């Protein structure tokens, strides 16, 4: 999209937000592991962590989110979940599940069906591993007890959603793994075998290695889709993010940017973040961008220019995407940016320009 077109679209959105129930949702496409649909949507965080310490307090998913996402023309939600929401972190009790909480996940899958949004279930924290602190008591990559518990949880989810068509629900096994390739392939193989022992045809997606950024060719034979990330370069997407100490003291970002002694622009993104995954596609693996976004400390104009280049590349590659998050510091609602004039929308603060950009791609 050209800059002038983007500005015109933004102004049109500003004028018409009071009537933002748009076209009726289209029927969901039928996904296949070798050809994932160009799903476009958001991560919803109600089960991201247990308790009230995360971006959203743990609790039921909000149907209003599903309704708004569908009304704005998107068709996908990813639910990054911590197993701590429905089970204890104590390995002695890893297989004791809280049915009350799991029914809240069932409700989210039903909301997806009702509003024609594909629901992708992801274990952001799985027994034995999470990219975020605190560390798990046992190590998924080396401890058989952790792997057995991880298989148990995915088999349970497979049983809950057996019979649901793949156009409604899919599984994303482990968020942003950080281990060696052999260990990852071994663990993913065990999880896939467990799921398929219950539901042989369930659509399964595996995140890339190196926190989702590196395609894993050795998983191609398992007939899975794979999920990549859209956070490069980190000094743009995570400027002043408190949980990324390596970026402390970085100068305010620009776009194009300089990071790790490299000039980053659309061409650089294509080389590092698109072409390696296109090679994987040639092996019969569908690709989707499971997470991406720009933290609220990055200047808004820089964020939008960077986002537009990412979106153009993914559209050109035929990939869908899922913004982190919907409501919150990376999202279009209640993002708390100091340099945005927000629109009050259903009691929330809406970033109209970001919404207009996302809807165009």
Automatic annotation (TrEMBL):
<keyword id="KW-0136">Cellulose degradation</keyword>
<protein>
    <submittedName>
        <fullName>Endoglucanase</fullName>
    </submittedName>
</protein>
<dbReference type="InterPro" id="IPR050386">
    <property type="entry name" value="Glycosyl_hydrolase_5"/>
</dbReference>
<keyword id="KW-0119">Carbohydrate metabolism</keyword>
<dbReference type="InterPro" id="IPR001547">
    <property type="entry name" value="Glyco_hydro_5"/>
</dbReference>
<keyword id="KW-0326">Glycosidase</keyword>
<keyword id="KW-0624">Polysaccharide degradation</keyword>
<keyword id="KW-0378">Hydrolase</keyword>
<feature type="domain" description="Glycoside hydrolase family 5">
    <location>
        <begin position="61"/>
        <end position="326"/>
    </location>
</feature>
<comment type="similarity">
    <text>Belongs to the glycosyl hydrolase 5 (cellulase A) family.</text>
</comment>
<dbReference type="Pfam" id="PF00150">
    <property type="entry name" value="Cellulase"/>
</dbReference>
<dbReference type="InterPro" id="IPR017853">
    <property type="entry name" value="GH"/>
</dbReference>
């Amino acid at each position: 999209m050209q800059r002038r077109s983007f500005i015109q679209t933004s102004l049109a959105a500003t004028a018409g937000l009071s009537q933002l129930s748009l076209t009726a949702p289209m029927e969901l496409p039928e996904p296949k592991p070798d050809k994932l649909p160009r799903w476009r949507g958001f991560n919803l965080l109600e089960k991201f962590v247990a308790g009230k310490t995360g971006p959203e307090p743990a609790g039921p998913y909000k149907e209003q989110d599903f309704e708004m996402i569908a009304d704005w023309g998107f068709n996908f939600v990813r639910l990054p979940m911590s197993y701590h929401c429905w089970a204890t972190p104590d390995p002695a009790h890893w297989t004791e599940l809280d049915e009350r909480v799991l029914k809240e996940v069932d409700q989210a899958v039903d909301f997806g069906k009702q509003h024609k949004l594909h629901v992708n279930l992801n274990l952001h924290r799985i027994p034995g591993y999470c990219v975020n602190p605190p560390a798990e008591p046992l190590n998924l990559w080396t401890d058989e007890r952790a792997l057995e518990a991880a298989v148990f949880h995915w088999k349970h989810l497979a049983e809950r959603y057996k019979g649901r068509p793949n156009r409604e629900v899919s599984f994303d096994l482990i968020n942003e793994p950080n281990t060696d390739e052999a260990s990852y392939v071994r663990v993913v193989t065990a999880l896939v075998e467990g799921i398929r022992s219950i539901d042989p045809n369930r659509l399964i997606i595996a995140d890339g290695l190196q926190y989702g950024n590196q395609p894993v060719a050795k998983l191609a034979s398992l007939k899975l889709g794979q999920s990549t990330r859209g956070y490069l370069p980190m000094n743009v997407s995570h400027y002043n993010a408190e949980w990324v100490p390596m970026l402390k003291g970085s100068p305010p970002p620009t776009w194009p940017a300089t990071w790790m002694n490299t000039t980053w622009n659309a061409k650089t993104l294509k080389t590092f973040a698109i072409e390696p995954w296109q090679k994987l596609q040639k092996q019969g693996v569908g690709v989707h961008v499971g997470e991406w976004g720009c933290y609220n400390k990055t200047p808004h104009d820089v964020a939008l220019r960077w986002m537009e280049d990412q979106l153009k590349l993914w559209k050109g590659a035929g990939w869908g995407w899922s913004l982190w998050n919907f409501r919150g510091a990376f999202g279009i609602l209640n993002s708390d940016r100091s340099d945005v004039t927000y629109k009050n929308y259903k009691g929330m603060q809406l970033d109209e320009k970001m919404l207009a950009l996302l809807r165009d791609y």
